[in-house]
Amino acid sequence: MRKDESLFDWVVVSVISQDRPGIVASVSKALYENHYNIEALSQTAVLGQFAMILVASAKKGQPHQRLETAFQKLSQTMGFNITLKEAHREDMVPYRKSETEPFVITVRGEDRPGLAYGVSEVLAAWEINITHLDAKVTSIGQKLEYVQIYEVDIPKQLDFDLLHDRLRNRGQELGVSIDLQHREIFRAINQI
Amino acid sequence: MLSSEEIIRTIEMLKNENLDVRTVTLGISLRDCASSSVGEVCKSIRSKIERHGKDLVATCERTSRKYGIPIVNKRLAVTPVSAVAEGLPRKDYVQVAKTLDETARDIGVNFVGGYSALVQKGLTSGDRNLIDTLPEVLATTERVCASVCVATTRAGINMDAVLLMGQAIKETSLRTADRDGFGCAKLVVFANMPEDNPFMAGAYLGYGEPETVINVGVSGPGVVKKELERAIQSGRRLDLGDLSEIIKKTSFRVTRVGELIAREVARNLNVSFGIVDLSLAPTPTVGDSVGEIFQCLGLDFIGVPGSTAALALLNDAVKKGGAFASSSVGGLSGAFIPVSEDLNISEAVRRGHLSLEKLEAMTAVCSVGLDMVAIPGDVDTHTIAAILADEMAIGVINHKTTGVRLISVPGKKVGEKAVFGGLFGEATIAEVRGVNRSSGFVSFGGRIPAPLTSINN
Fold this sequence. Notes:
The structure holds two protein chains of two kinds.
Chain A lengths: L7 E11 L4 H11 L3 E10 L2 E11 L5 H14 L2 E7 L12 E10 L5 H11 L3 E12 L2 E13 L4 H15 L1 E7 L1 H7 L2
Antiparallel strand pairs in A: 1-3, 1-4, 2-3, 5-7, 5-8, 6-7
Helix pairs in contact in A: 1-2, 3-4
Chain B lengths: L3 H13 L4 E8 L9 H16 L2 H12 L3 E8 L2 H4 L5 H18 L3 E8 L6 H16 L3 E9 L3 E3 H17 L11 E5 L20 E7 L2 H13 L6 H30 L2 E6 L12 H7 L10 H19 L17 H8 L5 H10 L3 E8 L4 H17 L4 E8 L7 E3 L6 E3 L10 H5 L3 E2 L9
Parallel strand pairs in B: 1-2, 2-3, 3-4, 4-6, 7-8, 9-10
Antiparallel strand pairs in B: 1-7, 4-5, 5-13, 6-10, 11-12
């Protein structure tokens, strides 16, 4: 982030498309040509579907009309689904209500409707924020398994054991195994 | 950010490959508990252990739940009782041991190590009392573990103490004859005994250690085996250098787990963190075996020709990975090949692939010693002492720790089975060749001088 933030306006852009080469290039070209600077960006692809979210800044008072037009053109010619939303600097902070510790929840078992809802409903009720979520079918040993991995921030004052029990019970109801572990164990084992 | 592959792989290690922390051992100094009154000594010991150790089990369990890592054993290691009880008459030593036993039970740990003496150069009256009371203590207590250091590279081998320990093993086995001589499973004879070893039965708190300290023993033979299997099954062409590299990387992961847990437990107990012991410790469970690693390395059984070389490779790779993962490596940090505690090794003895002599050869390259080897109950004291002396010599000359945990099984012969239960497992009784032919040598007594290589200042 640049120093004198009061001199800038902010926009949030999301792009969804069938994945293929050139999507990032087209979107970033439109931003560059209209004098926007990309402040932060994240991109992923799920089953061939491209998704990107980015935050960009422009000189204060600069109308976003020209960028909107450029994006409309991209939508028509390239088939992108693009949204543009104005934002405020003060909104550009991660969600944080209290001191938290990072944990990882892993859900394993047979795929079925309602798994994401079943788990996230518990998290929502406990005011636990999901910081990263990944779900896919993957091969473990000889067999294929459906795996969901939630990275979450758990408030420090929360009774960890109670939450663990709650998630385990939910896992039993849903017919999957659910584990909750501090993120540090994964870092320790996998990263130098 | 963590990749989902990393997370899934980690969960697999925990759930299906027996990755765990084998022991968290809290060392507590009992130096300030010495007194000439047995009542005072026992009271001080109880109160000090309770003060420092009362939260050990709960803290370990909480840490275990937080990271999803099983901590299999919670244990205590204390100052050698030979020093703490030096001011007491012999009859009171057993009382001290019983106090340790009861206090350990009350705070919920499964073993307390430190019924120990260091006698490599000679015995004080306290050392002598301790050795004399070993059979009674090991027979009448449940949780007390004993160890005696009879040799070091600096001092040589105290052959008088070796003979005494031969007698102690024999008597302990007779006192616990109804349990196949199980008392001997809680007694180790050492050369170059480490001061910070977290593993039983040889754990004690050395004289150079702090007031209280957390030392951790990691595990992971199952993880090493799976990684090797996975690589071999992938169809890639691998040579032994590649396999060594795989073991090294796995050891890094396992050690990192140990250090993470050790530091967290130490912080929560407000105790200093000591060391991580890198030893690959097996259990009598399929998939948690050091012997199975030998099979992955292409040997039909541990003990066949090639086993010494394979063990050298394994242990060296474990050390290299572990030393990179932690700057606080200590304890034994060598591959364990405890016969009864490893299903596969036990089976190798039963089938006749692994002999006492081969085990001894393997201890020369890396492993920690003759561990949990069951021998016939009719092997005489002098022969047992001579086996101890041979193993001590390997440690002394090679500047390494060697330990002996021999179980003389009363009334049983070669090929019969001794059953110890739980983590101690069961073992087929191994043949001891050349019995009754070493008396002349061990009866000379005195000290085998320190080797020339000990003069290195």
